[in-house]
Amino acid sequence: MNDNEERPVTIITGRVWKKKGGKPEGVHVMLVAPDDDSAVRRALESLAAEGYAEAELDQIGDMDGIPDEEPHISAFQGALEGEVSIVTFDMPI
How many CA atoms lie within 13 A of 75 on its CB side? Predict the structure, then answer.
């Protein structure tokens, strides 16, 4: 990829905890970064800034297109605008 091409939106999936030993939440983090290492670093920094005490990141990849449903559509748009977008959700028991 050369510098003139737009970078794809990266999605990182995993789990987060507001407090150690607390109830986990699922998380999808969307952002644009030059490489996977930078993406993971920015995701962890953003999660910490939002008050998450712990995070386990499972997968990282590039989005193939715009998501179909909210809140992921807004998160995707935020990532295109340079934000680190965080979507959390309840995990099945």
Answer: 21
